[in-house]
């Protein structure tokens, strides 16, 4: 087939969105689109009309038309199948079939159209692949953004520390005889060799920055000195920042210099001063007839310390997994210590972990093509019932009985305009007509409720309409048998009070 153009038009002939797939002048395509409503006639049952040069294939969408313009030599059956895929794409990006909604999401629709047709020929893609290609979610981009945010935050903290250091040096010099600090007049001048606001971005997900060590000892203020008054201190710091601006230094206006000795940092609820977060993301694609096409698990342990006295610690882990999980520690972590004792500690024990920062210390990865690796399996059996519709039986089974899955949702696509009739259901279901989706919800799936089923009928449907199924869930149980056992001080190996948060969830789980 050669597809010339795809467009969404109103029933009055107004074009809302149009995408051309072959070289054509603007006047030519506008003429073809303007001729379409004139060729329509009432009472016709088929959904195509022809002229001497092109064929119009269309499908009504409430008040709109999904229109394809093809050559007359193209295969009409392929044209209709392509038209059906175009019609299913629109509800993915538009909440309603209104003209304003289509116009607001025009660019997303054009991007999706480009994934279906390339140079006038249909691509071998399904709805799930189109959604993935358009979103273009990048794990590397998220890692880069997290590293950049950490670097900016550390740079701001060091800038404030440097400002305090120079201000105190100036105050000490004034007390001793009114002399200026040697480097005060030149801003960051010669002292900038110890100030590193940014760090090189490596391939690690988290960067462990060097702790800020002040190179001075503040002198004890005299009883009658007015320089240590709170109001005077704020004014001095403000004047110092103003002087930096006058000398050409760039100082962020939204950064407030903290004048307290121990700033109060809000703590997350139900977490200790030493908190570890164990997070796992699962990506799965399973064939409708069985077989794992893709299985990938990514795990990450992050450490967050809120008090500097707990900075020099080691984390004791327990690994009982025998499925060949690939483990990787942070470059600053002692690999020999982890290999021999299962402990996470820095290569230089006297150095502390950074404060008030989520530091990734261990990550892992697991790939498999074994169906027994699935946490939960979904079996969907649609069968034609002889009444221009299908009877669908879906069942789930918990494969890993040591897991507890919460908020399990199985999203079943439906043909446009289909109203399913649910005959039997374990759990709850919701029909989202705008998205043409039947959502099967299960609050908890564990060893006591490890299997369940759902049965419904869908008129005007074929077996392929109910794929791909999308599955989502969360769990407080780790998939990998890796656990945080204890946190110990480096000096005497005494235990440290800590908290652990475990999250296992799906990033993408499809039955195609």
Describe this structure as you would to a colleague.
α2 packs antiparallel against α4 and α4 (106-116) crosses α5. 24% of the residues lie in helices and 33% in strands. The model is unreliable at 179-234 and 253-268 (pLDDT under 50). The chain is of the alpha+beta class and 512 residues long. The strands form 5 sheets. It has a 9-stranded mixed sheet with strand order 11-13-9-8-23-21-16-19-18, with no helix packed on it. The protein has a 5-stranded antiparallel sheet with strand order 2-1-5-4-3, sandwiched between helices.
Defining key terms:
single chain, 5-stranded antiparallel beta sheet, alpha+beta, 8 helices, globular, 512 residues
């Amino acid at each position: 087939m050669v597809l010339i153009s795809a467009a969404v038009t109103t029933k009055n002939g107004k074009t809302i969105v149009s995408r051309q797939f072959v070289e054509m002048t603007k006047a030519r395509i506008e003429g073809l689109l303007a001729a379409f409503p004139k060729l329509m006639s009432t009472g016709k049952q088929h959904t195509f009309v022809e002229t001497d040069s092109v064929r119009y294939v269309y499908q009504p969408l409430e008040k709109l038309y999904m229109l394809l313009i093809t050559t007359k030599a193209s295969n009409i059956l392929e044209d209709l199948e392509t038209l059906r895929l175009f019609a299913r794409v629109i509800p993915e990006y538009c909440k309603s079939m209104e003209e304003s909604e289509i116009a607001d999401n025009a660019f997303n629709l054009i991007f999706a159209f480009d994934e279906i047709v390339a140079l006038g020929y249909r691509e071998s893609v399904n709805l799930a692949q189109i959604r993935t290609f358009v979103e273009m979610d990048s794990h590397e981009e998220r890692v880069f953004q997290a590293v950049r945010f950490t670097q900016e935050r550390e740079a701001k903290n060091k800038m404030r520390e440097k400002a305090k250091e120079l201000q105190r040096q100036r105050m000490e010099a004034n007390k001793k005889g009114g002399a200026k600090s040697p480097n005060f007049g030149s801003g960051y001048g010669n002292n900038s060799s110890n100030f590193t606001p940014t760090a090189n971005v490596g391939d690690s997900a988290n960067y462990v920055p060097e702790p800020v060590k002040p190179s001075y000892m503040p002198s004890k203020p005299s009883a009658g000195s007015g320089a240590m008054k709170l109001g005077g201190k704020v004014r001095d710091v403000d004047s110092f920042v103003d002087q930096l601006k006058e000398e050409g230094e760039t100082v962020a206006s939204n950064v407030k210099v903290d004048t307290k000795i121990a700033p109060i940092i809000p703590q997350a609820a139900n977490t200790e001063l030493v908190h570890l977060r164990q997070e796992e993301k699962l990506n799965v694609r399973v064939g409708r007839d069985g077989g794992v096409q893709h299985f990938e698990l990514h795990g990450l342990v992050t450490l967050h310390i809120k008090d500097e006295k707990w900075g020099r610690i080691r984390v004791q882990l327990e690994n009982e997994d025998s499925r060949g999980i690939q483990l990787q520690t942070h470059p600053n972590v002692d690999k020999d210590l982890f290999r021999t004792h299962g402990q996470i500690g820095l290569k230089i024990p006297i150095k502390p972990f950074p404060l008030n920062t989520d530091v990734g210390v261990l990550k892992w990865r697991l790939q498999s093509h074994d169906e027994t690796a699935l946490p939960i399996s979904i079996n969907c059996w649609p069968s034609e019932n002889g009444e221009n519709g299908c009877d669908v039986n879906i069942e789930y089974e918990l494969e890993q009985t040591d897991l507890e899955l919460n908020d399990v949702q199985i999203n079943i696509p439906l043909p446009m305009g289909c109203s399913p009739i649910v005959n039997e259901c374990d759990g709850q279901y919701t029909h989202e007509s705008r998205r043409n989706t039947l959502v099967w919800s299960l609050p908890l799936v564990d060893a006591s409720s490890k299997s369940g089923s759902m049965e419904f009928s869908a008129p005007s449907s074929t077996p392929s309409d109910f794929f791909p199924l999308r599955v989502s869930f969360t769990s407080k149980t780790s998939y990998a048998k890796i656990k945080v056992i204890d946190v110990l001080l480096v000096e005497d190996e005494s235990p440290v009070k800590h908290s652990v948060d475990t999250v296992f969830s799906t990033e993408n789980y499809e039955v195609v």
